[in-house]
Structure formats: C-alpha cells, structure tokens
Amino acid sequence: MSKETMVYWTLFTRNEWSLYTAATSTGLCFIGSNHGNFEELERWTGKAMPQHRLVRDDEKLAPYTAELSEYIENGRSAFSVPLDLYGTEFQLAVWQALMDIPYGETYFYSDIAEMIQKPTAVRAVGAAIGANPVLITVPCHRVIGKNGKLTGFRGGLEMKKQLLALEGRNIETLK
Known about the structure:
Blueprint: E1 5-14, E2 17-23, E3 28-31, H1 38-48, E4 52-56, H2 62-74, H3 89-98, E5 107-108, H4 109-115, H5 122-130, E6 143-144, H6 157-166
Parallel strand pairs: 1-4, 5-6
Antiparallel strand pairs: 1-2, 2-3
EC number: 2.1.1.63
GO molecular function: methylated-DNA-[protein]-cysteine S-methyltransferase activity
Catalytic activity: a 4-O-methyl-thymidine in DNA + L-cysteinyl-[protein] = a thymidine in DNA + S-methyl-L-cysteinyl-[protein]; a 6-O-methyl-2'-deoxyguanosine in DNA + L-cysteinyl-[protein] = S-methyl-L-cysteinyl-[protein] + a 2'-deoxyguanosine in DNA
C-alpha cells in the first residue's frame, strides 16, 4: 500500500483575488481558479495523488501566499518558492518552459513547442498547458494564440486578462 501524501491548503484572499492554494511538504502543488471552489482542489488531488489527505494549514502555506501577495500587490516578477509538480514527463517539460517566459511577455503555443524541441506538438502543448495545476506561479497565462488572441485558460479568460494586465500587458491588443 502506498503512503498517504499530506496536502496542506489554504484559501488565499487579497483584494479581488480568492484562490485555493495547496502544497505538500516538498513544495507548492496547486493554485486554483480565481473564486474557484474547494471541489476544484479535491478533484485535482484525487487525480494527481490518489492516496492523499487534505489538511487546512494557513501557517504552512504562508511562504507561498506571501509571494502571491507580493505578485498581486507589488508586481513580484519571479517566484522563489519550491514547487512539487505532478504530471507526465511531457507536461513537466512544458511547465518548465512556461517558467522561462519573462514577466510581462507573451509567447505563442508554437514557441513553447519549439522550446521543448517538439515543434509539431503544438496541440499537445496546449493540452499540457491546460493541465497546469499551479496557476500564476507556472505562468500559463502568458501563452496566447498565434493570431494574438487570448485562448483557453483553466482559470477562465477573465482571470487570464487580469493577470496579463497586472503584468503590464495591454490586453486591448490581445483580443
């Protein structure tokens, strides 16, 4: 029988933001949609870690929520907290590439495919980006369609717009 993974969570709230946030003893593993519900976290942990226990622990999540706060309020451009990402080898490669996108910039899905040296895997890259469990910190909001339009985002297009605007992107040019 596999060992149960403890997943500590909190509800991060700041200004108009309300995000379920979770971490294991290794690092941040989940940031939910803005104003998402607890079931979003439960569904994700059920898939990623079948043997888990969710435990609310605001104190354990304090280092993570402090950096989220700084990002939202003061324009923190990079995160230093450890991550504990659960995904396939391909997904992990895509998520790592996302973390290389500079603050305030946008890339195309095809750019990410090139970065991971799989130029024909644009659709698979899109699916991997859609499966990103750690919104904001793994900045999938910085990826847009080749035509310059905002495309799908697990947190919803409104959240994507808010994040890009927070980073100083003129979202009016991204329709």
